[in-house]
Amino acid sequence: MDGTKEKILTASLPLFALKGYDATGVQEVSDAAAVSKPTLYYYFGNKQGLFRALWECHAAPFFRNFTSACIYEPHPSVYEQDVFPQLCTIAKIWLDFTAADPLFVRMMLSLEFAPLLSEAFSLTKDIFERRTGILVRFFTAVSRSHGNMKGKESQLAKSFLALADSLAADLLHTADGRNFNTALLVSAMVKQFMHGIFSL
């Protein structure tokens, strides 16, 4: 990536994450990156282009791992090798991403609840739909082996993501991340979720 472009993206993330999209101006980003406004416009076109580029840059590593983990490998007769470990892996990928890129995830979680008609929501809607869609496809594949899930794939995906997001929020609010037992918390969360699945 071009050094100037990377510098602008790096400077913009703390501003967008801590102040929000609407409250962050192009001049503010330019000043933080020590570049002129015309330079920022040259690379990104406008504030919307910068915001999209920031999301694409930071979300790409997550989606690579997430998409791969959401390929269901059926072992329906062995609980320890079927849905449970795969959901643990999926949740851990999200929490590892949260730990590695906390500012971006903080911004991402805050925008899940942005007003529907806001510019920020329109710029990020596709990202959230993509994340949910990948997990819906996972549960669709699972439902072929576990018929009680059939017709509930979207509900299951959204419920699972809500639980995973709550763990990510806990991690973001943990003063010392070393005391956050990711493996134990993920296992407990997935067991809670699985109990709900098998009671359907």
The gist of it:
The chain has 200 residues and is an all-alpha fold.
Give a verbal description of the structure.
The protein has 200 residues and is mainly alpha-helical. It contains 9 helices and no strands. The chain has helices at residues 3-19, 26-33, 37-44, 47-69, 83-100, 102-111, 119-143, 153-172, 182-198. The longest helix is centred in the middle third of the chain and has 25 residues, at 119-143.
Oligomer: single chain
The count of β-strands is: 0
Gross geometry:
elongated
Q: Assess the beta-strand content as a share of residues.
A: under 5%
**What structural category characterises the helix and strand content?**
mainly alpha
Bin the helical content: over 70%
The gyration radius over C-alpha positions equals 19 Å
Order of helices and strands: HHHHHHHHH
Q: Report how far the terminal alpha carbons are from each other.
A: 48 Å
The mean pLDDT is 90
* Helix count from the secondary structure assignment: 9
Mind summarizing the main beta sheet? none
Unreliable spans: none
Topology diagram in text:
Blueprint (H helix, E strand, L loop, with lengths): L2 H17 L6 H8 L3 H8 L2 H23 L13 H18 L1 H10 L7 H25 L9 H20 L9 H17 L2
Q: What are the main properties of this structure?
A:
200 residues, mainly alpha, 73% helix
